[in-house]
Design goal:
Layout: H1 7-20, E1 24-25, H2 26-33, H3 37-53, E2 58-63, E3 66-71, H4 76-83, H5 92-104, E4 107-108, H6 109-116, H7 121-129, E5 133-138, E6 146-150, H8 152-157, H9 169-181
Helix pairs in contact: 1-3, 2-3, 5-7
Length: 195
Amino acid sequence: MPLFFSDNLRAALECLLFVAGGPVSVDSLAACLGVKPGDVDELAAELQELYAREERGLQIRAVAGGYQMCTRPEFASYCEALLRPELPALSRAALETLAIIAYRQPVTRTEMEYIRGVKVDGVLNTLISRGLVQEVGRKEAPGRPILYGTTPKFLEFFGLKDLKELPPLEDVAASQENSREAGGRGSIPGHPGEE
């Protein structure tokens, strides 16, 4: 792929993604760089191509409607050895509630409780405090209950570009059934384990 942009613009994009520490929207990057949003996509592709060609330890990923600089997965063990992160795990109840929100959003607390068969107040507050879920409006129904949906941090947490990358519900149900038949308790696909 031929390079169309100057080294300065690619370097500027690299700097912005480095200092951001998380996903940055295409519109924000375009405004900072003084280019069109489509140019940001091209710049990111060029930068990623350079990283791949030079076998760097970093990559540029499309995440949550923008771009993020992150380490390549094959070097994760080195990063873990240095940082020894203690990521707070989500309980099974939190994962179940989060799955309901992700697949049915916007959804009310009452709808979540109906599906789960138990109260979700504590779990919902945990998901909100971790920035994975947010209020997204009010339902046009008596009492105007609050509607909840996922956040860009949810996409980042699960490494998704957008909600379309969620596995189809049929695949999730089949995975749960296969796990139970094999004697397991079932788990959410893409999750390393449970609490």
